Amino acid sequence: MSPSDTEQAEAGPTDPLADFAADVAAVVGGSGTASFGTVKVTVTADTWVDSISTARDRFGLVFFSWLSAVDWSNEVAVGDPLGEETAERYEVLCTLGDLSEGRRVTFSTDIDKDDAHIATLSSVFPGADWHEREAHDMFGIVFDGHPGLEPLYLPDGFAGHPLRKDYPLLSREVKPWPGKVDVEAMPEKDEDADPGAPSTENPGA
Amino acid sequence: MTSTDQDLVRHLSEVSVSVELETEDMTLNIGPQHPSTHGVLRLLAKVDGERCFDVRPVIGYMHRGYEKLAEVRTYAQITALINRIDWVSGYANEVPFMVAAEKLMELEVPERAQYIRLILSEMARISSHLVFMASYPLELGAATPLFFALRERERVLDLLESVTGGRFHPNFNRIGGVKPAAGAGSTQRKTVQDLPAGFFAETREAMDRVDGAVDQLEDLVAGNEIVLARTRGIGVLPPEVAAAYGVSGPNLRASGVRFDLRKVEHYLPYDRFDFTVPVGANGDCWDRWWVRLAEIRQSASIIRQAIDGIPSGPLQAKVPKVIKVPAGETYVRAENPKGEMGYHVVSDGGQGPYRLKIRSASFSNISILPWILEGALVPDIIAVMGSLDFVLGDVDR
């Protein structure tokens, strides 16, 4: 899935969320979308910190919600691969909110996998400190200027970055997931039955 | 005063000046196994005498890797994982994830199911806050409130169990609605049984008892000199600092910010009910205790209103047998007992998420510890930590 696919936004021109996304994008110089109730503004990696601090000051987005990343990868060690080809990259995400109307914006930027660097947000939001340490643990992303990029979750000497898509899940290597059964089609009778929906024809059966 | 007395006074004042103690910095290790840490949290506190000047929390002892595990599970299977994040309010963890999946699938959840979710979420809030009402005074040295709080919490958990079949890990939500109540038989056989008989009457009674317990707790704790001395003006958290660290929920509201996701995000029909958002004035430990106490009353009132207005109808929207969530991404957050709990779901159209980011409240809430404990007295570490009401499962995920 490429970022442009999220523009399938059911958002019409009068959708206040889409307007808000456009406003924020115009101020920070990125592109904004609003889909499924989530405003997402994509900026370039070199304007990451500036965009976020500008948006905080201009739109009152003073609440630091979270920061994390997505490993967009065509090869996966475990789990289902993507349906279609994607550009290999890490997408760094950061969500901010206001503390009055409940507006929130998820900022997004792409960074190169071979050179996974981005400037730290911890000078803008001190709460970003732990979130960036977590992203460093899990994805190996380096946050330049971070005051102490030590492991947060992983034990000393842990090799690898577990949330990268090329990182295997050892329990699955040893034994296939028995829960796979749950998602296979049920035996043929009741093909179109809807198990959870109530039925009036035979209550109490 | 004779001249010898004056000499003595002069002498003593000189002594007190000249005997300034050379204190050596000491590192105080607290945890990871310590009753006040609600799980396994380690604090490395550098202390100078009785004052901390550098506190470093060490977390990760309970990291279970749910975000990775979610990538190899289907949406339905993930429900069983995520109610273990904050196990003190397991039910409430499930709701925002379900809402996120339903949003991506553009499903309309039947109203009755939404009301049931709301009632159970508020019960989870009451039981979580009652645990706080039990444990916090205990940490300060008062054992009695525990009995008053846990007795009513047990009643609420019994009700949760009567509906879901589980006290802590209900696994009760389904994409598109909720499961038929416990004991209703197999969903495959199309049996529909709603909430258990007598549920509404018992819930009303339980809510009255909860209100009674809140009054008792207020009498017991709010009038206690020692509790007041240990919590008033201790661990003051200014609102702008709280926001910049992502501190949310009752901890943020105790700092005077009137912000509640139940009022602004429409993940459940809270806009139909009349309730207020209690806020504190000073952002100290006392306010954090008081805000939670006041929230219990509001939750009990919401539950009463929801029971009065619950519509009839189906429990589940029509969903396909094999659930596939269309490609897209969304972030859905909810006001959980501990604060903002949210799920960022990235779907590529498969049966499970491509990436699931879990935003848990306690993680951000305790990231404030180094800031808030700087300069604190050593005995206040426990008072401040306890007042933040975190659960390590919710920190580590």
Describe the structure in your own words.
- The complex is a heterodimer of chains A (205) and B (397).
- With 205 residues, chain A is an alpha/beta fold.
- Chain A has a single domain (3-174), classed as Beta Polymerase, domain 2 (2-Layer Sandwich), CATH 3.30.460.80.
- Helices cover 20% and strands 21% of the residues of chain A.
- Chain A is built from four helices and seven strands, in the order αββαββββαβα.
- Chain A has helices at residues 16-28, 48-59, 128-139, 170-174, and strands at 31-35, 38-42, 63-72, 89-97, 104-111, 117-119, 142-144.
- In chain A, the strands form two sheets. Chain A has a five-stranded mixed sheet with strand order 1-2-5-4-3, with helices on one face.
- Chain A is globular and about 50 Å long.
- With 397 residues, chain B is mainly alpha-helical.
- Chain B has a single domain (35-396), classed as Orthogonal Bundle (Cytochrome-c3 Hydrogenase, chain B).
- Chain B is built from 16 helices and eight strands.
- Chain B has helices spanning 3-18, 66-70, 75-82, 90-105, 111-139, 144-164, 199-222, 225-231, 239-245, 250-254, 261-264, 285-309, 361-366, 369-372, 378-387, 392-396; strands at residues 26-30, 42-48, 51-58, 173-174, 177-178, 328-336, 339-347, 355-359.
- In chain B, the strands form three sheets. A three-stranded antiparallel sheet of chain B has the order 1-2-3.
- The interface between A and B is large, with 64 and 73 residues.
List keywords for this structure.
heterodimer, A: 205 residues, alpha/beta, Beta Polymerase, domain 2, 5-stranded mixed beta sheet, two-stranded parallel sheet, 7 strands, globular, B: mainly alpha, Cytochrome-c3 Hydrogenase, chain B, 3-stranded antiparallel beta sheet
